[in-house]
Amino acid sequence: MEVIQPSASFYPSMENIPTLYGDSITRTIWRSKQSLDYAFLFYYCADLAQFYIQLEDDIIAEENYLEKISEFIRNSEDWAILEFGARGFIGMTYRSEHLKLLSKFVRFAYWTMPVDWTFRYFNDLFLNGKSHKTKSPIFKHVGQFSSLDGQVRKLEDINDYSEQIGVHIYQSKGGNPKAEIKTTMTEIVRPHEITNPYGNSGQFWSKKVQVGDTIDIIFENPTKISQFIISSGNSQHPADILYDTELLASTDHSCAKYTLLKTFFNSNIVKYNFDAAAGYIKCLQLKILSTGHDELNRPTWLIVSEIAVLV
Questions:
Q1: Residue 9: pLDDT above 50?
Q2: SS3 41
Q3: Residue 20: which of 172, 190, 150, 156 has the closest Cα?
Q4: For all residues of the chain together, what is the average pLDDT?
Q5: Alpha helix (H) ranges present in 194-237?
Q6: Are 227 and 310 in contact (CB under 8 A)?
Q7: N or C: which end of the chain has fewer CB within 10 A?
């Protein structure tokens, strides 16, 4: 075991660091320093072994974890990141030859986003769209207390992947029916576009939500739907959810006339089951009836983590 500590000169001044995503200055400084901590760690570890795996002291490992990891590495090709955890960056694995590049990338973007987002963008640099992730997590993160003062996490449910940023769990294996996805919300956190949650990965994140805003799904062909699911918010931003919201449907080819299916109230996961008499749906619409505010009475943003249309 080695204990390492960067010198104070490694860290830039954070006196005038910009705040993003509605984060407080305290949280912004905390996550920015965390990114720099990892940048230092990656560079230090670059020449120590063939692979690097991200672990912490508050995890539980499956039996025979080393054999399972070795087998997964042998069976995986063309990867920059392997994932052996349920969510976040626990269990992220890299080739050591990439660590210095990863260190520079994290240091370059240290204040712009949380470090577990930076990890995923690093994978995109290698043009690896495929996620190399074990079917069941080998490492379970059970820590309850965050290093950010006052933050207490719920113990992680090993079967719940819904909070992992960018990962979709509700869509069918073949994906959603072909459709055009639109929204009236135009002030977004890029690259979190409205098409992401309907596709096979990614999320939508709007910085401004107003009463009357809509999310519209226009199917390429009228579709017989069995269930509609939309999840919003995540563990880092639990208030960025759908508040009072209407779900409407149209069987009209021009989508000029909508029928109200249901109204939902303050829901991070919305599910609606269609009955057999619903017919073929051309358009679905989510309409915002009210918006939320945080503990400082600031308007909350909106994260749509996933949209699933099951046929």
A1: yes
A2: helix
A3: 190
A4: 85
A5: none
A6: yes
A7: N
Task: Give residue-wise pLDDT tens across range 43-102.
Answer: 999 999 999 999 987 788 888 899 999 999 998 877 888 888 876 678 889 999 999 999
Residue-by-residue DSSP string for 110-169: TTTS-HHHHHHHHHHHTT--S-EE-SS-SEEE---B-SSTT-BPPPPPTT--TTSTT---
Q: What is the pLDDT of residue 165?
A: 56
Condensed to tens digits (0 to 9), the pLDDT of residues 223-247 reads 999 999 999 987 677 788 898 999 9
Q: Are 197 and 306 in contact (CB under 8 A)?
A: yes
| Half-sphere exposure in the Cβ direction for 297 (13 Å, CA) | 0
Please say whether the beta carbons of 193 and 292 come within 8 A.
no
Q: Are 307 and 271 in contact (CB under 8 A)?
A: no
Q: What is the pLDDT of residues 200-215, one digit of tens each?
A: 888 899 999 999 999 9
Q: How far apart are CA 98 and CA 16, in angstroms?
A: 31
Q: Give yes or no for a contact between 219 and 250, defined as CB atoms under 8 angstroms apart.
A: no
Tokens representing residue 171 in the block = 């869509």
Q: Rounded to an integer, what distance in angstroms lies between the CA atom of residue 32 and that of residue 117?
A: 12
Q: Which amino acid is at 263?
A: T
- Residue whose C-alpha is closest to residue 13's, from 89, 110, 82: 110
Residue 237 Cα to chain centre, angstroms: 10
**Could you give phi then psi for residue 84, rounded to 5 degrees?**
-115, 10
In contact, 153 and 146? CB cutoff 8 Å? yes
